[in-house]
Fold:
Amino acid sequence: MGAVALLLGALPAAAETIRVEMGDVGYKPADISAHVGDTVEWVNNDFLAHTATARNKEWDVMIQPKKTGRITLKRAGTIDYFCRFHPNMTGRISVAE
Amino acid sequence: MFLRIVAASAALVLGSAAAIAQGAKPTDPQIAHIAYTAGQIDIGTAKLALQKSKNKDVRAFAQDMVRDHTAVNQKALALVKKLKVKPEDNPTSKSLSEQAKGTLASLKKLNGAAFDKAYADNEVEYHKTVNGALEGSLIPAASNPELKELLQTGLKIFQGHQQHAEQVAKSL
Ligand SMILES: [Cu+2]
Structure:
């Protein structure tokens, strides 16, 4: 019993999926916090295609209207991202260990 | 010189959209027509760029313009149908179209890097002017709330296009 608890305690928290809406030419919420291993899923509710493009070029996801796209966070740090089609759309992900 | 002429005359024409708003407020059918015409013009310019340009960034930008302005105009058509508004031709739309013919004719004479630069610079100025007209006259004048909302969304999209065009122009 104690050994199981010890083991579980040592395991990282279960990976989560964090949803971000693309709507009205913006990311909602624009700022999110996450952990390594989590997935960020963008849901495009606009009538236009958008992208979620990391400024450090680590990933670039294009999402058609009414579709979803996702990435898995591989390391800790702050990632700023934007839409290549509408660079006035900007977002940030703060990733903890 | 060429660039200055294109940009200046686009500003002049859309300036007249502002003039309309200040004098007699444009009606919703006129606003719908102006906004739709402005979109079609940018699609036309983008199609020319797709015929002429070999630059990867310029072509990607032009494809974005065709895709986005088509989507916005489809949305606008669906809205005017729903609202039973018939878009109405007006002097601003007419002069916009006339102006666009001149821009296309001038751009057609250019090739290669000169074309790319002129196209990108024109896109910066064109979106700047359209955004100014939307913000300063068309949105305030729109009376139907759904039309106003679509114009406001359009403004955000076109502000994005303007920034994107500025990046492309700077990279050339
Ligand atoms: Cu976008």
User: Anything to note?
Assistant: The domain at 13-96 of chain A is CATH 2.60.40.420 (Immunoglobulin-like).
